[in-house]
Amino acid sequence: MKSTKFTPVPLTKAETDKKWWEIGDFFRRNSLWLLMYCTGCCAIELPPAMTSAYDMERLGMGPMATPRQADILLVSGYLSLKTLRRLIYTYEQMSEPRYVVALGSCPINGGIYHDSHAVINQLDQYIPVDVYVAGCMPNTEAVMNGFVDLMDQIKHKRANGWKKYHENYSWYKANQITSLGEVDVHDEFHE
Amino acid sequence: MKEMKLFLGPQHPGMHGNASVHMFVDGDIIKRSYLLPGMLYRGFEKQMERKLWVNNIALIPRVCVPEPDINEMAFASGAEKLLKLEIPERAHWIRMIILEFARISAHLMAYGGLGGPTGNYTLMYHAHADRNNILDIFEKITGARVYHQYIVIGGVRQDLPKGIEKDMHTFLDSLESRLKEYRDLGIDNASIIKRIKDTIMLPAEVVWELGVTGIGMRSAVNKAYDIRKVAPYARYDQVEFEVPVSDYSDARSRLDIKIKEVQQSINIIRQCLEKMPEGPVRVKPARGQSMRWTVPKGHVYSMVESSRGEFGYYMVSNGGTHPYRVGVRGASYPQGLLGIEKYLPGTRIDDAALWVDTMGICSPEIDR
Amino acid sequence: MIVNILVGIGIALFGFALQTSIGGINRKIVGRLQKRHGPRWYQEFIDIFKLLSKRGISHGWIYDFGVIMALGGIIATAMFMPLTVDIVAFKQFDNFFIFVYLLAVGMLGMAMSASGSGNPWASIGVMRALTTMLAYEVPFLIVALTIINVSDSSSLTAIQAFQQTAGNNWFIIALPLGGLVGVLSLMGMLGKKPFETYIAPAEIASGPMVEYGGKQLGMLFILHEISVFIEVSLFVHLFLGGASNIFIFLIKYFTVYTVVNLISNVNGRFKIDQVVKFFYKWPLLLAIIQAFIAIYLGWVI
Amino acid sequence: MANIEYLLLFLVGSAVISYFLTRLNSFIGSIFTIFATMFVFVSLAAYGFNMNLDTTVSLLPWFSFSQTYLGFFFVIIIAFIYLMVSFFHPYFLDKYPYKNSYNLLFLLSLAGIIGAFYTDHFLQLFFFFEMIIWTTMFLIPQGKSREAAVSYFGFSLTGSVALLIGIFVIYQNVGRFDIQAGLAGISGTTSVFVFVLFMIAALAKLGTFPLHIWLPLAHGNAPHPFSPVLSGALVKLGAFIGILALIKINPIGPVIGAIDLALGQYIIAFIGSLSIVFGTLMAIKEDDAKKLLAYSSMSHGGYILVAFSALNGFAFAGGLYHILAHALASAGAFMAIAAVARATGTTKMKELGGMIHKMPITYLAYLIAIISMAGIPPMGGFISKWLIFQAVIDRGMILIAVAVFFGSVGSFLYVFRPLAALFLGQEFREYKHVKEAPLLMLIPTFIIMGLNIYTGVIPKQIIDFINNIIGENTAFAPVVATTFTVTATYGTLNAGLIALIFGVGVAIAFIIFILMKKSRKVELMDTYTAANFVHDEHLLHYSVDFYAPLERMYEKQSHWMKKFYDALAHKVKEVGKLAKYLFMSNNIGVTLIWILVIIVLLIGVVAL
């Protein structure tokens, strides 16, 4: 005779972790904290997004002071080599999971500085980017839309840039070293 | 003596823009400091040599982000001088309106920026809300919020849209009525006065030594040195306005002058709207194949008054389709790059962010 | 005993939930002040749980141990806190000094952990936090001395009961100068704006919290919410006559926190020495005058 | 049956033995010292608690002893500190120039202390006092500076002279040298005079406000293992004299109506509060960890004075409890600093950093000590401060309350400084080789850690003993205490409950911590630097001028004070120069001869 007793299906540890992760995703996408690193011009469209005009806090977003606290690394505009070195350093300091949102045309293909000798053209050669917001400069609406897109990606588990960074670490590292050389910190300018 | 090193920027909430102030600190007093520039370097002046004169109009606003229109104005008026081009009367007035709006927007941003270092975020939120209205007006006029590329060689890109005067008047009236509120929240706020009064002093010697212009200079040496007065461009000689000065340059007096200049800008825009004639707004600069027209041989230094001081372009043409050499005098270069080493030592780390804020340092302008 | 401890844990949990929601509501209210909508009222819960779910970094054992000690100290403090005259975990042991000094354990744990991260901004933040504490505690303790002397007990429930007895006023009315000092000290304790020197993002990059992320920061947020709960309830019990039932407590709590928060949001922040000068000028003088009037002359309204 | 005179003779004898043993091998000599001290401590503890120590045997002619609860309270604390410190000797002695005599002087000073607290005769009290002063005076300069010893001697001399004059005044009036009878016998203006003289002696020994110059000098420059003794034990002699003066003499004077306290007591309380404030402020400024703790001793001396001058049962109990708690806390802190100093060779905070990663147990010892010192539960300092607060509030001493609260919060500031600058922060590369202190040094560290917690959790036994003292010396009502609680005017403090709840809180926090994702371990140098790269950990360590903004506020105001003290110090130095001329030579034999001469002379005086 078939037992009518309810037997809970034991979950493996991986499955439990997955469940917890999904719950965590809800919190993570509703509380995205930005790291304000004004790498370039597009930072100027962030104050309207943060302050009264567009009020990013509605979505649970806010600026944070240090990379440790932040969820999103916001690349606002073109990246000179000197900045890129610092950007990677900052990215590696952030807590996981971490997302990268790149504003403007410059991180995508160099934008208006595509032929400059001091500016990199493609950011995703160096660190994984989850959301690009194109435009020079992107409107505040576009910026906000980028964040909403990121939330959507987190919801559908597509914001996996930080995992990619772990998986393809050697590739990213090789690209970084090709462009920047080894960071050898021995004096205060360390270039 | 054992020292500690602190960094203000590039990734620091107290630093606007991508530059780093390195501070050697004893206790909490800054002993030595210098600005580490170069993080925004993108070979700007070199790039300009590679672009057509007309293409450069698209590039130059990016020299300074908070107030891009002065670049267009300086570049366009310089090119016009080289071309010996007379632009239509109406274009002059429209340019003035644009420039003054840009000045108000930059001042509001800088004044609201006071909210950051002092922690009064309400002030910042209000200032940015008002600034956003200006950006909306810009969007209506030019189609873009920040980089307008509106002031072009030969006038302005297009005429003002219909009915924009009404929007402008509405905005100006509301802003003027709220200036007192800004004072109350900012420089007249008892808790903020403690932070900004009689501190963060800019001595007159530093002004003379470094060649600081703009509000930094006018507040320190009581000298109404304003390009709009001493070498008027556009039609600034036909409008009435005052240049507020003071001889005591603490942070408060500098911010006070900022607010007064906002008031003056409002007056200027009103006069412009009143006196502006009808007519065409643009002439063709020169003859040439498509846009590859040439500019006669020569060199010119064209300067405008930005919200941070004298902003100039030194342009050399060898008669070709591209500029031969363009040099930019960034307004915040003296007080930013050089000044950090002069005036920051001796102050406290509490004040470092306020220094950067009230001196109006715009880092892309330093690096280029 | 077990029951008492459970009640205490319940109070701590309640305090956490209460302050986290009221903090969220206040963010909305402040949002209106700043011409915007503000976040959802439960935003702070989301923030905290998100932080707990993240994978942070650790700078060595003291970095973790300090956070645990800090949160433990604060939870312990909250467990002693009475909500009303009746709802209290350890009747007659809710001594005023326990709150002042057990709070310090939390402060010490946090300071240790922050300094242990080896970041100079964090150490500066800790320095400022401790200096601010030196500033606001002395006037506050003098007023507390007056209250204890007048009400003849240092137990918070007894002080509440004293104020609720017919014929006695709330201490904010009975000791008006002391009440003023109490409000100022409360703002110092909560780190509200003129005295918010130790977070100061634009100056020292959020001070002690500079190195925290992930669960450690989440725990510090919990710590912050509970300590705000402790400080505001302390004010309610000492000055506003406590509460005879939970609704009155909620109303008083909400009012105090909102008023303080609104004052905070139209002010800038002082420098750290200005904070010390401020507290050792008028509030200390007023507190001493109040104590003289109340204790020696017996003029208590 | 243990006898006090046996103990004294034993100590003097073992002092001589240890001299020769140390001469052979400093390690063996130090181990011998440990056992000698341990023997004395165990005998005292075994017989003293119930007043079973035999004082009747008269081996030493002219010396008479009696035992009191008050004396035993002091003696057991001090002997304990001596025992704890003696564990440090094997590792430190080799560094000192006259290591042979170190153990000798150490044991002799212990003998002096036991004698001083067990005697019932004023001149013997003075004799033992001098014995302590002289022996310790030669111990101090073994550290770094002779100037410190001179200063210590100068101030002690002031105290001794005042004490001696006071004793003679009593003798003149009462005709007896007996302590109890003598103090009871005086009255009127004489009592005021004696009160003032005794208080000068107490203040000088306690190192409180006007007579505190020697304290940071001596504490800061004394040999590292001797600083705990100085701060934890020896300054408590001042508290003993203070109790004699404040409680026993109690001169009739104008009574301040509002707080119902005699003017004399109020003035002493005021001096105590000045001492608290001044000590706190100076400690906040200080850069040397040992000097910082010395100033903290000064501030705690102020608490003790306030407690005893409040003339209140709770305050009296609080003061005695504070003596115990501070002795433990201060000894613990000094011993931790000594362990660090042994490993690194410095106590300057600006030269140190990140020691926690090398010396975690020492760090814990320091942490627990400072928690007690700052008066935070669940350590002993909280209970004593709480009792003192009760009395201050009860009396309504507002101005003194300001100082008491200020010192209480301020202590938090200054004790945190060594914690942050010395133990926490960046790890310096020059100390990479440093190791944790050896096991023998960790034993006392653990014991003191345990006792610091014990005094803060289970106050019953201590309060009971203090109640004995209260009953013996005063008419105050005893303090009510159960196993875990202490009850005072304004409520009950449940120390055990606080500790329990604190444990519960930490457990909850730990569960939250352990449930969540594991952290990624990173280097100390991988820290937020506003996205700049750093290469030198020294530049990232915030230790110099830690409280710079606060210090700047009273830097100018304390200037005139500094000048005054400089002038005073100059005068003291002149006195000291004379002493130096007479007594200080490089030959230790000369010193010993002088000591012997003085002892013989004093014995002669006593015999008369």
Model description:
The complex is a heterotetramer of chains A (191), B (368), C (301) and D (608). By secondary structure, chain A is an alpha/beta fold. Helices cover 39% and strands 11% of the residues of chain A. The model of chain B has no long low-confidence stretch (mean pLDDT 85). The longest helix of chain B is centred in the first third of the chain and has 25 residues, at 89-113. In chain B, strands 1-2-3 form a three-stranded antiparallel β-sheet. Chain B has 15 helices and eight strands. Chain B folds into two domains: 1-41, no CATH class; 43-342, Orthogonal Bundle (Cytochrome-c3 Hydrogenase, chain B), CATH 1.10.645. Chain B has 368 residues and is α+β, with helices and mostly antiparallel strands. Chain C is mainly α and 301 residues long. Chain C has helices spanning 2-33, 43-53, 61-80, 96-116, 120-151, 156-164, 171-174, 176-190, 201-204, 214-239, 246-264, 272-297; one strand spanning 57-58. The radius of gyration of chain C is 19 Å and the shape is globular. The interface between C and D is large, with 91 and 80 residues. Strand 1 (57-58) of chain C pairs parallel with strand 6 of chain D, so a sheet runs across the interface.
Which SSEs are present, and which pair or pack?
The complex is a heterotetramer of chains A (191), B (368), C (301) and D (608).
Chain A: H1 13-30, E1 33-37, H2 46-50, E2 62-64, E3 72-76, H3 81-93, E4 99-103, H4 106-109, E5 131-133, H5 140-155, H6 161-167, H7 169-180
Helix pairs in contact in A: 1-5
Chain B: E1 4-8, E2 20-26, E3 29-36, H1 44-49, H2 53-59, H3 69-83, H4 89-113, H5 115-118, H6 121-142, E4 151-152, E5 155-156, H7 164-185, H8 190-196, H9 204-210, H10 215-221, H11 227-230, H12 251-275, E6 298-305, E7 310-317, E8 325-329, H13 333-343, H14 349-358, H15 363-367
Antiparallel strand pairs in B: 1-2, 2-3, 4-5, 6-7, 7-8
Chain C: H1 2-33, H2 43-53, E1 57-58, H3 61-80, H4 96-116, H5 120-151, H6 156-164, H7 171-174, H8 176-190, H9 201-204, H10 214-239, H11 246-264, H12 272-297
Helix pairs in contact in C: 1-3, 1-10, 1-11, 2-10, 3-4, 3-10, 4-5, 4-10, 5-8, 5-12, 8-10, 8-12, 10-11
